[in-house]
Design a protein that fits this description.
By secondary structure, the protein is α/β, with parallel strands linked by helices. Helices cover 33% and strands 23% of the residues.
């Protein structure tokens, strides 16, 4: 077996409408060859490139053809309004809570661009979560949305405390508080209930207790068994179910626990997620790759669909095992709020950039979460600094941005989502205009020859697409792998990922620049191309002179015996 494939494309083009001749002039710089028969040596073709400079005549679909195209209504509307290059590529995740759980509110969020709905299993009942999930699925089916569902497990919450009140409580300067492991219902004055009996192990009088990353601080003045009596030194608001940390001489007191990453309640929540056909499960307080591997093995045995497992990076320990966690997971959430409890605040920006870069290198989607628009929990507009923070995450090419309390409990969730949408679209446009395409150090992912070829094809395809200024990239995929490899390279053009696997479609909903489309595919690759292009034309969003790059990982068949992975450029009439 031998393959000759030059993945470097030495061309520079200008985006925008082009004539067939102009496209031909740019394609003339392509240097590519694939296996054939030479000197009596048979070479098996694993990759092909075809640049079709002739006008692509699309015959009308016959009456027996399936004319349905699973393009969601939001993407279709955005495409009509802004065109291919104007489509937003950064995905948006909304945490669903009491402020946005009605059918009307969920539809408003979906219409405003919500790609993934997150449900925090620490709050509310399973009946409440079930009701929300079914409302989202109803909107997808009846209104034409494509919103994926993520459940977020609580984890073994070693250092989570709760004062029992339904809202925040003010801790005044020098007030005395009891942090106790005693279990009780409701709330007690100046009392905070710890979730884990060993929360005070190793803590001594004089240590500093920091509440929720600095919302308030206390000095330990007395230790009573497992309980701590503390004096407030920095007054502030104590939120329900907050995380605390202990500091001594300016350094974090590291606390090791033998509790498992996945608690008993988590397993029950995971079973609930499987039964409700969710698309993603986010794991809290991940320490290393072991728990991720355990959960993925469990899901492969228990679930008929492919559920993505996301790991939340929210502790010093998870940072120390970052690469192994990223490799084992299906995606990462940068939980900056909890992470900021355990590392100095000034490290958060660089750590966020490092995590985002590692995720791109290892081809895992990354969500930047926590306090993006925190002020909008109370106010209808964000601070300018918050908008700058959002824009920086977009500039770093994070796959997704997430709203937490802004949507779950704030009265301005739809406005917060609109801010994310507008800020991300503007930064994407600026990056493209300034030619700030981020060069990715190519970390080899695949081991087998076909996997390595797929990586090179996608890298080459994105470079070609950017240089030729094609309007869109069409990829035909069974499980989403080729779409994710294209997304990894962050092309200027949107990626339309056609699949007949609904599970793959919903998982691709989290990947940068990918518009997943559910459509019936056949084994005839050329027929798939003609059919989907015609269906897109019928939507009125594909015009004469548009150039489309076609990438495929559909396996070979009798109809297309030479097609394994391929690149084609098609021009439309």
């Amino acid at each position: 077996m031998a393959v000759v494939f030059n993945s470097r494309v030495f061309m520079r083009g200008i985006a925008g409408k082009r004539s067939i001749a102009d496209l031909g002039n740019r394609v003339s710089g392509v240097c590519f060859s694939a296996g054939g028969v030479s000197s009596g040596v048979k070479l098996r073709v694993r990759a092909t490139l075809q640049v079709d400079l002739e006008k692509l005549e699309i015959p009308p679909l016959d009456d027996s053809a399936d004319g349905r195209l699973g393009l969601d209504v939001v993407s279709e509307g955005e495409l009509r309004e802004k065109g291919f290059l104007g489509m937003r590529k950064t995905k948006l995740v909304c945490t669903i809570g009491p402020a946005c759980c009605s059918l009307e509110d969920l539809e408003k969020l979906a219409s405003s661009g919500m790609n993934v709905a997150r449900l925090n299993m620490c709050h509310s009942t399973r009946e409440w979560h079930r009701d929300v999930i079914r409302k989202i699925k109803k909107l997808n089916e009846e209104k034409g949305f494509c919103v994926s569902v993520m459940i977020d497990t609580g984890g073994s919450q070693i250092q989570v405390v709760d004062h029992g009140a339904p809202s925040s409580v003010k801790a005044e300067d020098e007030s005395i508080w009891l942090f106790t492991t005693q279990k009780f219902e409701g709330s007690r004055p100046f009392t905070v209930q710890a979730n884990y009996e060993g929360f005070s192990e190793g803590i001594t009088v004089g240590d500093e207790l920091v509440f929720d990353g600095g919302m308030a601080s206390f000095e330990v003045i007395e230790k009573i068994g497992n309980d701590l009596r503390c004096k407030c030194t920095d007054p502030g608001l104590l939120l329900p179910r907050a995380k605390l940390s202990f500091w001594r001489d300016g350094k974090l007191v590291e606390k090791n626990s033998e509790l498992p990453t996945i608690s008993t309640k988590d397993w029950a929540d995971i079973e609930f997620g499987i039964s409700e056909d969710v698309d993603f499960i986010a794991m809290s307080f991940v320490k290393d790759a072991n728990a991720i591997i355990q959960l993925k093995s469990y899901l492969s045995d228990k679930s008929s669909k492919s559920i993505g497992v996301l790991a939340k990076i929210e502790s010093l320990e998870s940072l120390q095992h970052l690469e192994e966690i990223v490799k084992a997971s299906d995606g990462i959430m940068v939980a900056r709020g909890d992470l900021g409890v355990e590392i100095p605040l000034e490290r958060i920006p660089t750590v966020q950039a490092e995590i985002t870069q590692v995720c791109r290198q290892l081809n895992r989607p990354v969500i930047v979460a926590s306090q993006l628009l925190e002020s909008m929990v109370e106010y209808p507009i964000p601070t300018r600094a918050e908008v700058a923070d959002v824009s920086e995450a977009v500039r770093q090419y994070a796959d997704a941005l997430m709203l937490s309390g802004e949507s779950a409990i704030g009265p301005y969730g739809d406005k917060a989502l609109s801010v994310l949408q507008n800020a991300s679209s503007r930064m994407e446009l600026w990056s493209r205009e300034e030619n700030r395409q981020s060069a990715l150090h190519q970390h080899q992912l695949g081991v087998s020859l076909p996997d390595r070829i797929a990586e090179q094809i996608c890298s080459c395809a994105v470079e070609m697409a950017n240089n030729l200024g094609v309007d869109a990239i069409f990829v035909y995929t069974k499980h989403g792998q080729m779409a994710s490899l294209l997304s990894r390279n962050r092309p200027n053009s949107p990626i339309f990922a056609f699949t007949d696997n609904n599970s793959a479609r919903m998982r691709m909903n989290l990947q940068w620049g990918v518009i997943p489309i559910l459509v019936e595919l056949s084994e005839d690759m050329e027929a798939n191309i003609i059919k989907t292009i015609d269906l897109i034309k019928m939507k009125g969003v594909l015009e004469e002179g548009d150039a489309v790059m076609v990438v495929s990982d559909i396996t070979p068949s009798c109809a297309t015996p030479k097609a394994f992975q391929s690149i084609q450029v098609k021009t439309i009439v």
